[in-house]
């Protein structure tokens, strides 16, 4: 799946603002907005975005596990 689609899906799933995502991944609140307008992410930024999304999901999973205990 293309990184743009992964990011858009992540934003919808977690009700996260595009500016929040951009700030947390790259300290760039316009990251997603620019991406939507044709900006291509470099491989290093793709890795950062994927790592952030994976860590965010792991964090939520840990919180769910604690609540279930």
Q: What does the model show?
A:
With about 70 residues, the chain is mainly α. It is about 75% helix and about 0% strand. It has 4 helices and no strands. It has helices at about 5-15, 20-25, 30-35, 45-69. α1 runs parallel beside α4 (about 45-69). The mean pLDDT is about 95.
Mean pLDDT: 94
- The general outline is elongated
**Poorly predicted runs of 5 or more residues:** none
Give the biggest sheet.
Answer: none
| Number of separate helices | 4
Tags for this model:
69 residues, mainly alpha, elongated
Summarize the structure.
This protein is an all-alpha fold and 69 residues long. Helix content is 77%, strand content 0%.
SSE layout:
Blueprint: H1 3-14, H2 18-26, H3 31-36, H4 43-68
Helix pairs in contact: 1-4
């Amino acid at each position: 799946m293309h990184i743009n689609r992964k990011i858009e899906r992540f934003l919808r799933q977690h009700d996260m603002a595009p500016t929040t995502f951009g700030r947390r991944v790259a300290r760039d609140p316009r990251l997603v907005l620019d991406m939507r307008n044709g900006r291509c992410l470099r491989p290093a930024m793709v890795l950062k975005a994927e790592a952030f999304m994976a860590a965010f999901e792991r964090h939520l999973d840990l919180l769910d596990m604690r609540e279930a205990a």
